[in-house]
């Protein structure tokens, strides 16, 4: 029951990332928003770790945490936001993101010793098809064929970064506390976002209420809450089963955009949502077997 509630809460929180990004980007430079967001989240989780007396990882484990954060927070967020801000249609970026669970599943089987039953692969394929149905109208309107090489490459690298950061959570760092893990990993992402801000040289920030509200939710909801749930789910369910939940994010975000911004939600998208939900439920209905158990968090 706890795992099911955590999975539902994670999907609900994570889906708002598309909505928050759309609301905030017109009011501030994307790289600056991410740098501030990740730095504030690092401070918040460091305080929580200090209160809980969770020890700072050292040596190799510290390096792995920083690497996971750099990929999961830094590369994924900065590159995907940059791609969208430079001509990559949001629907295409979301479709690329939906391939992340497939990358994680293949890597888990190839490198981590997981064995996924046929039902999991079928569910994954159905869910990806459902996501494609949800995003198809947006892709057709945006003219996917006109995407420049730079944004396209950035989008692919962003998804690879998230897949790599997710897989690292499965290793020896799984024994560290959630708060200190989040603090160090957000710190790794913040360093990359700060570097991207300095490189871009754009410091636009108009200070409107929408920007501050979006920042508050990004820190407390998306980064502190959503990413902590992501780490918890990877440790308890494995990277493949957790990643399948991400396939529910684009359909749910489409529903939220319909409610908040009046974006079109047609029959094909509703069918796609049903396919994505059914595929994820089918794929997660069996626990993958592994050569080694997932380490439990301290």
From TrEMBL:
Q: Which InterPro entries match?
A: AA-Vitamin_Transporters (IPR050638), EamA_dom (IPR000620), EmrE-like (IPR037185)
Where would I find the EamA domain in this sequence?
A: 2-135, 153-282
Q: Which family does it belong to?
A: Belongs to the EamA transporter family.
Membrane topology label: Multi-pass membrane protein
- Organism, by scientific name, is Sphingobium fuliginis (strain ATCC 27551)
Where is it mainly found?
membrane
| Record's protein name | Multidrug DMT transporter permease
Enumerate the transmembrane spans: 32-52, 64-84, 90-113, 120-139, 145-165, 177-199, 211-232, 244-261, 267-283
SUPFAM superfamilies, A to Z:
Multidrug resistance efflux transporter EmrE
From the Swiss-Prot or TrEMBL record, state where the protein is found: Membrane
Under the heading Pfam families, the entry gives: EamA
| Record key words, sorted | Membrane, Transmembrane, Transmembrane helix
